[in-house]
């Protein structure tokens, strides 16, 4: 999979570096990612004064590839960030061919210029949300969310939320265990909010400081389809079953079993959303049959 970062003059370095670090770490773990940095000029000035050099022009892309537009110093979307016709056409053509286009912070304006926000839900930095809604009245701008996904158009809020967005995309492709491993390597506590389709149990219940619980969650994330007895999880963490249950509840509000069930249901929902039958999705998520899946879906 190719991940192409579109470099716009006055881009914010963290908007670029955060998601790039996620995919770079994924590549270090052996996943097949190729990172490119595209621009119409060789050197692109950043908002922080450090110029960034492109590695490519506007490359040809496959439908499986991802384009990410970092935000830039906008002060409410003035002249900074105005895209040329060729860049707007390139973005729109990639999406029309089945590709995914994402943005961080004010980078949502680039997707708007390409016509990709019309009729879709989106978000941006909290200081720019009203301006984005005024600028693109056909878009539905959501507030108080970290990111939004609508028909392969992915928008995220302020600067650091690009990390959450990238972790979500990795989790969707490779599972929550991989995303959790990347988050731990980056020393970030993965978190997320948003509409239910984007909400992830793995990231939603990782915003705590208990290393014992993180270690147990690592095991559950990687093996959520397996049968995981409480005694084995407690042994992994080096604590008693009673202590683990107490620590896990304090950190997440859940038992280890309920956390595992949430991951299973989310995996099944993802498969069903991509055309799988309820029965096959249930088996792939670790359920013996669809009855338990249906029961948990109705509860959750």
Descriptive overview:
The protein is α/β, with parallel strands linked by helices and 300 residues long. The protein has two domains: 2-170, 3-Layer(aba) Sandwich (Rossmann fold); 208-299, Arc Repressor Mutant, subunit A. Helices cover 45% and strands 12% of the residues. It has helices at residues 13-28, 85-96, 108-113, 129-135, 161-174, 176-185, 201-204, 211-222, 230-237, 241-252, 256-273, 278-284, 290-299; strands spanning 2-6, 34-38, 43-44, 52-53, 66-69, 100-104, 121-122, 140-141, 147-150, 153-156. A hairpin with a 7-residue loop joins strand 3 and strand 4. Helix 5 (161-174) runs antiparallel to helix 6, helix 8 (211-222) crosses helix 9 (230-237) and helix 8 (211-222) packs parallel to helix 11. The longest helix is centred in the C-terminal third of the chain and has 18 residues, at 256-273. It starts with a strand and ends with a helix.
Keywords:
alpha/beta; 45% helix; elongated; 300 residues; 13 helices
Concise account of the structure shown:
Helix content is 45%, strand content 12%. The protein is of the alpha/beta class.
CATH class of the largest domain: Alpha Beta
Supply Rg: 20 Å
What is the overall silhouette?
A: elongated
Assign the structural class, choosing from mainly alpha, mainly beta, alpha/beta, alpha+beta, or little secondary structure: alpha/beta
| Total strands | 10
* Distance between the amino and carboxyl termini: 33 Å
User: Would you identify the CATH H-level superfamily of the largest domain?
Assistant: Class I glutamine amidotransferase (GATase) domain
How many domains make up the coordinates? 2
How many helices does DSSP assign? 13
Instruction: Provide the β-strand percentage band.
Output: 5-15%
Give the rounded overall mean pLDDT.
89
Strand order of the largest sheet: 2-1-5-6-10-9
SSE series:
EHEEEEHEHEHEEEHHHHHHHHH
Q: What's the story with the biggest beta sheet?
A: 6 strands, mixed
